[in-house]
Design goal:
The radius of gyration is 23 Å and the shape is elongated. 47% of the residues are buried. The protein has ten helices and 19 strands. Helix 1 (7-20) packs across helix 3 (39-48). The chain has 338 residues and is of the alpha/beta class. 28% of the residues lie in helices and 21% in strands. It has two domains: 7-204, TIM Barrel (Alpha-Beta Barrel), CATH 3.20.20; 216-337, Lyase, Ornithine Decarboxylase, Chain A, domain 1 (Beta Barrel). The N and C termini lie close together (11 Å). The structure holds pyridoxal-5'-phosphate. Pyridoxal-5'-phosphate is lined by residues 29, 31, 78, 148, 182-184, 198-202. It is an enzyme of class 5 (isomerase). It catalyses: L-alanine = D-alanine. It comes from Paracoccus maritimus. Its EC number is 5.1.1.1.
Amino acid sequence: MGLQIDIAAIVANWKALAARAPGARAAAVVKADGYGLGASRIVPALYQAGARDFFVALAKEGRAIRPHLPDDATINVLSGHMPGADLDGLVPVLNSAEQFFRDRAIRPGARFAIQLDSGMNRLGMEAAEWAAIRAEVLDAGPDFIMSHLACADEPDHPANATQLAAFRAMTDGCNVPLSLAATGGILLGPEYHFDLVRPGVGLYGGMPFADAQQVVRLSLPVIQTRPVAPDEFVGYGATWTATAPRRIATVAAGYADGILRALSSSGASLYADGIACPIVGRVSMDLVTADVTELRTVPDHLDLICVEQPIDMLADHAGTIGYEILTALRQRYERVYL
Ligand SMILES: *Cc1c(COP(=O)(O)O)cnc(C)c1O
């Protein structure tokens, strides 16, 4: 019980996404500790399935997984070469001319990659900055050149084609492996795949990979149940009041565990064998209350994330995205890896 993480499902999702981009190598994005699910448990399984390219956000994250991967696995660091970074055994994805020159001065001859900005205006070299140092960068032999799509989860968004054209224009004639697609970009089709694809959220069962296998189940222990009479309220702020006799269960997890407070009386439920028990009243730091009146017997545990309520449905109730639901799940849960 607790937080169940199905490693075999992550591997199956990686294989399924790799199969959608048959001409490209499939990397695995494991930043933020594998989207909160435990990168040190995930990367050996993906390596065994054939993954050799991994992406993290920070050098610190790369160092944390380096001991869990053989030497022929590459760990790319998306934040690039920050001042003072220890990049031993890692490959920085250099985002600016400043990072490039810093990196060459400190790590001459060491492996690196390049990120270009194709329109998102978040990370990567702008066209003019790139044009000015392109010859010198290519001479130094980058592993690959990448960019990132801002709207890949919306296939009809015009920014996709605009960014694709910008990336093509900036990399024309480079003769270096190219990478543009994350999960959403893989699903946009072959013109977005280039040489290396970088799926993240789809590995963990999140949208936009609608065919993903479910990876996470979150089962919360019931501490106690009580009858609540009409006109009695439940929880902080007395925001929910019973209009009829109800039975309320209190489970042991709350917003300190990443159960977003926005889920208070949001339409989200705890589930008992597929039966929905609506969350009523406010989510507290360590507790959630749900209306279990419809259950004949209340089980020891109620599920917040399950087949009936996957991460993206929960995200809709909270007004956020599956990525935030996953990365908010913190360390306090008992974790079970399947
Ligand atoms: C997070 C990230 C990815 C993975 O994105 P998903 O949408 O989770 O598949 C790929 N590339 C970059 C640059 C990222 O920041």
